[in-house]
Structures are given as C-alpha cells and as structure tokens.
Write a structure and sequence with these properties.
The complex is a heterodimer of chains A (about 120) and B (about 425). Helix content of chain A is about 45%, strand content about 20%. By secondary structure, chain A is an alpha/beta fold. In chain B, the strands form 6 sheets. In chain B, strands 1, 4, 5, 6, 8, 9, 10, 11 and 12 form a 9-stranded mixed beta sheet that branches. Chain B has 12 helices and 29 strands. The chains are: A alpha/beta (about 120), B alpha/beta (about 425).
Chain lengths: ~120, ~425
C-alpha cells in the first residue's frame, strides 16, 4: 500500500488529513514538525510526503532540504496556507505546491498526479 | 533590450567556485586550496578571476570555498576587502552550509544546489559562474551582454583549441548560429567548428545562467544520479529544450585569447614559463586591466654582486623578482621569485619558481624546481640535476619538474623524509 507521511502541526488538521487520505486508500502517518518529519522520512521511507511549511520548531523548508539530502528521490508536496512561498527558490525542490483549503480535492489530485509521475519515471 | 550596462552588471551575481581539492597540484595544495596557490611571484591563482570580475564592473561576488580554505580566506580578507556593502558591493566567502545536504559538494552543479538559499536571498537576474583556478583576462560584461542579446538561458564561454588539445577538454559542438547542439567530455574524435575542420571549442567552465533557469536545473540534477557537473550533466540536459549558446572567448578576452587551467604541476610550470617569455603571451602589466592581490610591506629587491666580471657576477636574467628578495652574488635565470626569497652566495637557480620566504643556501644548484614557501635549502644542495635521485625524496613530474613542499625541514646530511 502507498505510504504517505503528513507533516502538520495542527492536531485537528492532522486527523482530517489522516481520515481523508485513508479513505483514498493510502497508509497514512503523521509528524508534527520538521524534526519529526526527518526522523520518520528516514526510518519509514514513505512513498510521498505532504509537508506544511510554517510550523513551530523546524519549518517545512528546512526539513525538505534535509530529507532530500538523505533521499533525493522522495516526492514532496508542499501544503501551505500561504501562496507567498511559491516564488521562494527554497520551495522549488518540491514536486508540487498546494494552497491549503477546506476542500481537500486539490491536494488529493496533486498527490495522485505526483505519484503517477514517479511511476512513469521509474517505469522508463 | 533597453537595459543599461550598469543595470546588467548590478543584476548579476558572480559565483566563484573555489572548492576543488586540487589533488593533481599536490604538494602545492598540501596546505591550501587550489585557488590560493601562489602564482606569478605575488599573486594567488584566484586573483586573476577576481580581477576579471572587478575590471568587468561586477561588484557582487560570492566565493564558495570548501577544502583547506584557511589560506584562501586570509588572502581574500587581506587583498580583496575593497568593496562597499552600503553601495551594494560585496565579496563574500561562503563555506559549505550543509543546509540541503550533509555532504561536501559532489560537483560544480551541487555547489550551486547547496547554495540555493544564497540565490534566493540575493535574487540576481543572472548568475555568472566562474572557476577560481584559471589564468586569463576576460571582460565578462561582453559575455553578459551577448547572453542577454541572444535571449539565452545558458551561455558557455569556449576557447578555440586544436585537435590534440581537444582530448583534454569538454568539447562543445555548435551550429552556424552558435547554438550548442552537443557536448562531449574529452572526446577521441571531436566535432569541429562549422566550416573550420581544424578548430574545436573547449568549454572554459565559465557560464552565464538566467537565475531561475539555474535554480530549476540544479534542483532537477540533484534528483538524478549524475556527477552533478555543469559541463557533463546540466549542459547536455539543457541543449534539448533550452536556448544554450556558445560565447567565443576570442570576443571576450582582453588582449591575447590566453587561457590556462592550472590543473597540474606541469600546467602550473608551463604557465609560469609563459610569463618569462620576452614577448609574453600573457601580460600582467596592462594598466587598463590591473591584476590585484595582497602584498605585504617589503623593501625593494636587491641584486648584489661584489664582482664586476660578467661571468662571475651576481645577476638575475629573464626573471620576475619580487620585492624583499635578495640575490647575493648568485645567479638566477628564467625563474620567478616571490617576496622575501634569499639566494645566497654562489647559488645557481635556473627555471625555478621559488615562493615567499624561502632561502636557497650557498652554492646550491637548482633547476626546474618549484619550491614552496619558507623552505631553507641547505648549502651545496643540488635539485633538478639528477632527477632519479630527486624522485626518492620529492615529487617529480613526468616532464621533470621537482616540487619541494612548504616548510619542508631539510635535516643535516640531507636525510629528509621521503615524500609520496
């Protein structure tokens, strides 16, 4: 089963993502900040990471650099309430950038698309 | 374009890659990074690239260091602390930040990938990528203007080389429009310049990128298993779907199109000899293109002779003698002496490069030898005369250049430790 690591500091949102993504058929784990994300990404090797940027402790941008430093192929979807990070070069390493909204459809579609791209690239 | 030259230069960040290990220059790189290796008496290799940048009107310079950066950093601090930050000018020395990876730079492209944060903070429109180990004079402003006029994503500076030289270069093949269509690393059968079967274009490792394109490319490359090298990996990738053009060094060079990559001891030695020719292919005294460096305070060089007999007098011919050096009843020919070198009574120095503070004892005979800083060569020593004997104690190159490392202690009776 496809494993997704959701990195999100807000407990309610964690639960929402867990539930909704499980309903899509993914195995879901959560981390509450950048540091925990690095630990879980290295240990559990998820197939994709949904990464919030603004979090207490280590933020998503720094965590992404470190995660890619240990595994440069792991797909990352940045999931943030702010569109302003999109122009920041530091976010360009992500496979996709999604603006948070109450409707999780854009996020779910993006996850599908990124996983599909990965499948196609590895199938080459 | 309508863009003034001034804005073009202000919107450009020069990034000097100064992190190479320089293994093939060992032992000159025993205690220093390659760009910090002394050259031409008073300079360090990096001074030529930095002088080019400043003479071209560039005022935003980041030097990316890595291995053994102590002496490089000190040199830049002493000699290149000439920028005014309040006017938007700077030269910053940036050691690896390990923000994106916990490894040393894996290649030239990785050095930029690991420093994307700096590009984000400085947000130049263009990035000029330079190497800290080349000897040449080039007006980068002309290349930048060409890049902008051609609406290029990547422009690669290339020097024309012969068929024999081509096997040592990354060879670029272009169409009639100067668009790059292929790249071959050290090819056995290189493709020539269109219409000129005996001329080939070798990449100089000097690139102009649109910054956003650079960021996209180094990120994409970071996710591939490559050498993370601009020439070998990024360039071949970009020629398929981006506008990549050649810039011929002949158009950008200041004076002769002279360019040398100081990659090996023999290359170092040959470039040093070039400076001593009666009509040198590379001149360092062009007032319109000054080469700057750090120089300490030294008295004038002294050449002393107690004899007037031309066959037996102290003399220096065909040589560069730096301030503070003393040639005392000794003969120096076809050599380069850095500041504070002492050549004592009766010594003969021929075809040598002698670095700062070294003392050549009485009656020594030195030929084709590079002596690093602060070595005291004991009286009567002969080096470079019997290469077989020398090779047991020192580095001796294929072409017969002997290298004495920095501060090597010569013990009595010359029982010196064998250097690998």
């Amino acid at each position: 089963m496809t494993k997704i690591l959701v990195v999100e500091d807000d407990k309610n949102q964690q639960e929402l993502y867990r539930q909704e993504l499980m309903d899509e058929g993914y195995e879901v784990d959560v981390a509450s900040d950048g540091k925990e994300a690095i630990t879980k990404a290295t240990k559990d090797r998820p197939d994709l990471i949904v990464l919030d940027i603004s979090m207490p402790g280590m933020d998503g941008i720094e965590a992404m650099g470190k995660i890619l430093g240990t595994d440069n192929r792991i797909p990352i979807v940045l999931n943030t309430a702010y569109s302003s990070y999109k122009d920041n070069f530091m976010t360009w390493s992500a496979d996709a950038y999604v603006i948070k909204s109450a409707d999780l459809t854009p996020l779910k579609n993006t996850i599908k698309q990124v996983l599909e791209n990965v499948r196609q690239q590895s199938g080459k | 374009m309508g863009r003034t030259t001034h804005n073009m230069l202000k919107d450009t960040l020069a990034v000097v890659l100064a992190g190479g290990q320089g293994e093939r220059l060992y032992p000159l790189t025993k205690d220093r990074a390659k760009p910090a290796v002394p050259f031409g008496g008073v300079y360090r290799i990096i001074d030529f690239t930095l002088s080019n940048a400043v003479n071209s009107g560039l005022r935003r310079i980041d030097v990316l260091t890595q291995y053994k950066s102590y002496s490089l950093q000190r040199h830049l601090q002493l000699g290149w602390n000439i920028f005014n930050y309040e006017l938007g000018e700077y030269l910053q020395v940036i050691p690896p930040q390990q923000r994106m990876a916990s490894v040393w730079y894996r290649g030239t492209a990785d050095a930029l990938y690991q420093n994307i944060y700096i590009l984000e903070k400085e947000r130049p429109q263009w990035v000029l990528i330079l190497s800290g180990d080349h000897i040449y004079k080039m007006d980068y402003a002309r290349m930048l203007k060409y890049h902008i006029d051609r609406d290029s994503d990547l422009t690669v500076a290339c020097i024309e080389v012969t068929r024999e030289e081509a096997s040592r270069f990354g060879i670029v093949h272009m169409d009639e429009d100067s668009r790059i269509i292929s790249f071959d690393e050290k090819p056995a059968d290189p493709k020539p310049i269109p219409g000129r079967p005996d001329a080939f274009l070798g990449s100089m490792g000097v690139y102009v990128f649109n910054t956003e394109e650079l960021v996209r490319q180094v990120i994409a490359d970071s996710k591939r298993s490559t050498d993370h090298d601009f020439g070998r990996n990024i360039l071949p990738q970009m020629i398929h779907n981006r506008d990549v053009f050649v810039y011929n060094f002949a158009q950008g060079s200041v004076g002769n199109p002279y360019w040398r990559d100081i990659g090996t001891i023999d290359a170092y030695s040959s470039a040093s000899r070039d400076l001593l020719e009666s009509n040198p292919p590379f001149v360092m005294d062009d007032p319109a293109w000054p080469i700057r460096t750090y120089q300490g305070q030294h008295p004038p060089a002294r050449i002393v002779s107690t004899h007037r007999d031309p066959h037996n007098c102290g003399a220096a011919i065909n040589s560069l003698i730096s301030a503070g050096s003393v040639i005392n009843n000794a003969r120096v020919s076809d050599s380069i002496l850095s500041p504070g070198v002492v050549v004592e009574d009766g010594a003969e120095v021929e075809g040598c490069v002698i670095m700062q503070g070294t003392i050549v004892g009485k009656g020594c005979k030195l030929r084709n030898t590079i002596i690093d800083k602060y070595v005291h060569v004991p009286p009567g020593m002969q080096i470079g005369i019997n290469l077989e004997e020398d090779s047991h104690r020192f580095t001796v190159t294929k072409s017969g250049v002997v290298v004495i490392p920095k501060e090597l202690p010569f013990e009595q009776g010359f029982e010196v430790p064998v250097s690998s």
